[in-house]
Amino acid sequence: MRLWGGRFSEENDERVADFTRSIELDRELAADDIAGSIAHVRGLARAGLLTEDELGELVGGLNGLAEAVASGAIDWDPALEDVHLNLESALADRIGAIAGKLHTGRSRNDQVATDLRLWLRRAIDRLDQALLEFEGALVGLAEREGTAVLPGTTHIQPAQPVLFAHHLLAYVEMAERDRGRLADARRRANVSPLGSGALAGAGYPLDREATATELGFDGVTANSLDAVGDRDFVVEALAAIALGMVHLSRLAEEITWWSNPRFGFVSASDAFSTGSSIMPNKKNPDPAELVRGRAARVVGALTAVLTLLKGLPLGYQRDLQEDKAPLFDAVSVFEASLGVLAGMLDTLTVDRDRMRSAADEGYTTATAVADALVRRGIPFRVAHHVVGSLVMQAEEAGVGLDEVPDSMIGLALGASGDEGAKTLAAEEGIGDTLRAAASLDSALATCDVIGGTAPVRVAEALRAARRRLGDQAG
Ligand code: ARG
Predict the structure, then answer these.
(1) How many domains does the chain contain in total?
(2) Residue 213 resides in a domain
(3) Which residues are known to be catalytic?
């Protein structure tokens, strides 16, 4: 008999039963559902609605159920629609009619909202750990390859050299913000809807705060109508996760390019690559590609839940059942993506020579040379022009900025029309000064500001990141 069958004289059409059922998915909430039920029956006893004996029987039965769930010994019955009805019915099988008192002063509407908040809390804690491990992999690689230099790009064109470690630490910053956003979402999710009933509030004098405390919530929701229909916490978590996946997708994109032989900056280990069914030569960075691909799915999950909510009147609407698939999927995709990327980073081989020679192409130290002129009193705009014309000459002659002859430097300075530049052109040693400024190492060293790529700054940032990770672990 269906638990809500009293006012029905006919069975549901099979298609309706199939269509409305959620047990395949919401059984994921079983442990949280039972924890919520245990706190709820304690609250019922405190309100004088259960005797001590009844409470003991109910808690004993629920604890037994929790063990059965943990060991996979529950037979989920599709005919029982969802996890809540399955567990209530399984409880009745175990302890008999007294199980009928469990649902006093509770609705599946405040129940599922409670379950989902409890579930999300645990999920966010796992994601936080996965983010820390991912940061650990980034920091580990940055430490191992501390001296590798990348051609930093803007517009995907060679721009300025940056330390590879600096590049990796940029992703650590993103991951730290992701952790912050998830922690923030967790804080707002961590209030108890229990006692809100179906929509109007429970019809008994339940001490909602005591129940909330028992479940580790920081407080209770303040409006029953809001509480049963609110899924802001799902949206907030999904927004944080979607952005986190976007960050991972950007890194995945870079790894796929870097491992293309044209770049040849990195090579994924065999354990983190796959082959082609037709081309024997292929070694593909599929895990990175799939992280990039699954980011799309997670962005879709956020869109799905926002769209789900936008037309809903207050109170519980059955549409809300559709919140779980996108939330569960997004959490598991993010967790798995963090794990697989961390593994890829842990086992990545870096070709420092190739990276360095690529960083040396494209006149990436031109800005540093202009800065050197500025340090000799030339206005930046003039310096920019001088170095621009030097790059043009060097390109024609097929030499690097650290190889340009004095004659070219003299020409570029002289043609600028700036008196200071002309004077400088005649100065002894100016050629050596500018050629020295054009080396990768001196260009890197000049970016010596907080957040800059100068090796001393990066070393400092790396130490800070390592310290923070150590603090988190301990
Ligand atoms: N399976 C439902 C959900 O996930 C539980 C609440 C159902 N409530 C109801 N009145 N039918 O949202």
Answers:
(1) 3
(2) no
(3) 155, 276
